């Protein structure tokens, strides 16, 4: 699979493609075109997430009000149950991220 293939021209919603699923590991390709989290919605995941930006830009906001902005080749580790939301994703170019979700192994 090529991570840049099979992406529609227009994305009315974020496109999430499961690339691998295992009992304690999940890898997704996430493609956004200007989408962001709904106001007052916070992700509170039971697994840690390692995020890598392949194209475009994304900005994440944490419950304490802090923000982190990521561009191509930037990575970020979001620990399990760290409340966050997507504040911004680029439209042109689309934001393409690889998200690796895992439980246990690297949480220490």
TrEMBL record:
Cite the InterPro entries for this sequence.
Cupin_2, RmlC-like_jellyroll, RmlC_Cupin_sf
Note the superkingdom of the native organism: Bacteria
The protein's matches in Pfam families, at most eight in alphabetical order, are given as: Cupin_2
Stretches assigned to the Cupin type-2 domain: 34-101
Task: Kindly provide the name given to this protein in its UniProt entry.
Answer: Cupin domain-containing protein
Query: Highest lineage ranks of the organism?
Result: Bacteria, Pseudomonadati, Lentisphaerota, Lentisphaeria, Lentisphaerales
């Amino acid at each position: 699979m090529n991570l840049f293939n099979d992406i529609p021209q227009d994305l009315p919603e974020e496109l999430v493609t499961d690339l691998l699923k295992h009992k304690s590991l999940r890898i997704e390709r996430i493609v956004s075109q200007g989408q962001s989290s709904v106001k007052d919605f916070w992700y509170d995941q039971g697994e840690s997430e390692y995020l890598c930006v392949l194209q475009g830009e994304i900005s994440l906001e944490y419950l304490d009000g802090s923000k982190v902005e990521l561009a191509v080749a930037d990575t970020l580790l979001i620990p399990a149950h760290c409340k966050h939301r997507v504040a911004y994703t680029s439209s042109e170019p689309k934001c393409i991220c690889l998200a690796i979700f895992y439980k246990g192994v690297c949480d220490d």
